[in-house]
Amino acid sequence: MASSGAEFVVIANRLPVDRDVLADGTVAWRKSPGGLVTALEPVMKSQGGAWIGWHGAPDETLEPFDDDGLHLVPVPLSSQEVEEYYEGFSNATLWPLYHDVVAPPAFRREWWDSYVAVNRRFAERAAEEAAQGAVVWVQDYQLQLVPTMLRELRPDLRIGFFLHIPFPPTELFQQLPWRRQILEGLLGADLVGFQLPGAAQNFVRLVRQRVGHKTHRDMVYLPDGRGVLAKAYPISIDAQGFEDLARSERVTRRAAEIRASLGNPRKVLLGIDRLDYTKGLRQRIRAFGELVRDGSVDLDDAVFVQVATPSRERVDQYRILRDDIDRLVGRINGDVGKIGQQPVQYLHASYPREEMAALYRAADVMVVTPLRDGMNLVAKEYVACRYDDQGALVLSEFAGAAAELKQAYLVNPYDINGTKAALLQAMEAGERENGKRMKAMRKHVMEHDIERWARTFLQELSEVGSHDKNPRPASVS
Ligand code: G6P
């Protein structure tokens, strides 16, 4: 056990940096653009924090290093573990299961064994890094066993867990052959955070039914006297950072350039997603294709730009999806396009934040229609970038963001006709209507930013567990 060590430790599957190999062969680490590191950086720097995570390459052991004031602790994964723990159990079992089984989850016992072994490695690494009584914050579905494994090694720690993706309805979760172990793994935390209150309720209900612990509202009471709080903390973005970027001259210029290169159409529609089967890309592109085909949308008038960021390319379902989308876009452009005019501009690439901000500013209609999504930060980024109170957001009811962005054009992404109607409505709405909606959404996003999210979670983590604050009601025996 470390007596000196980090007072604040973040554990995530990935480190918040990407490796660049420069022309002369030297290695440089670049901060990845995620909001999480932006939010936690000040806390990490002021408290001598450490971030424990995989650096993204297999079969390579790296020593801990400091980068731009952050202490980074790489956790190695072998090729086999990448296949079984990351691509397998995390992304072909848990990911589809937790997203409404929109693709069939695969249950393989050897993947589970690898998940257990890798979770243990993360927990052991954290146990070595954390100072006496430190706060440890475990992130996401890849590491659900870490809280209990870590508590067993270091009962002195205060442990928080946050699930970035949905937590499934109890009926679906029950399919998991290792359901009890996952629930028990999470119960090692003092505070288990979710995106939505419904997810926290699913969890508490499962704990009562499957593990048999007493529960009352959002509290679980363990036999050893410890209490675990399960509650929603909807994640957000660095809203001011996005607005500042959107206001910058470079982004303003680039946004105009983008519109010009699309032929200055009356309406630019935009989708930006990881290429993932949960994102509803098939349904969305089909809906827009039908609008062009049936003449509701004129080719001279509108273009749909879809950016799909490469993701998890070695997992079967992602390969299948990539081929499907290639074919679908090809068919629509082939059927209804004209020379120099393609209704769907499809880009399989990832772009820096600045280019994203320019795309957001160039887009009249942002289309975010996942079949299921924990939150969806793209929706919030779009809103933050529209400081002009213009633009329209078409948003799936099944994205966590819909609970907050109520003034969006909300759709059921499975309903193609409904989606077509919402796209048309968003395209045709006047400036006044869109202005009213955007203003209300902007107020919410600018006030509820990632800094507030992290502060609230960490504040409540510091309070929970002190039993006087969460006494077990007399009625819960
Ligand atoms: C989602 C998950 C994250 C994950 C990210 C990218 O947002 O909640 O935990 O890091 O997708 O996926 P990847 O598999 O590339 O880490």
Architecture overview:
The protein has 477 residues and is an alpha/beta fold. It folds into two domains: 2-235 and 453-463, Glycogen Phosphorylase B (Rossmann fold, 3-Layer(aba) Sandwich), CATH 3.40.50; 239-447, Rossmann fold. 44% of the residues lie in helices and 20% in strands. The protein contains 16 helices and 18 strands. The protein has helices spanning 35-47, 79-98, 109-129, 146-153, 170-173, 179-186, 197-211, 239-247, 249-261, 281-293, 316-336, 353-362, 377-385, 416-428, 431-447, 450-463; strands spanning 6-14, 17-21, 27-31, 50-54, 65-67, 70-74, 130-139, 158-162, 191-194, 214-216, 219-221, 227-232, 267-274, 302-309, 344-348, 365-368, 392-396, 409-411. The strands form three sheets. Strands 5-6-4-1-7-8-9-12-11-10 form a ten-stranded mixed sheet, with helices on both faces. A six-stranded parallel sheet has the order 15-14-13-16-17-18, sandwiched between helices. Strand 14 (302-309), helix 11 and strand 15 form a beta-alpha-beta unit. It is globular, with a radius of gyration of 23 Å. The relative contact order is 0.10. The model has no long low-confidence stretch (mean pLDDT 95). The structure holds 6-O-phosphono-alpha-D-glucopyranose. 6-O-phosphono-alpha-D-glucopyranose binds at residues 13-14, 140, 164-165, 311-312.
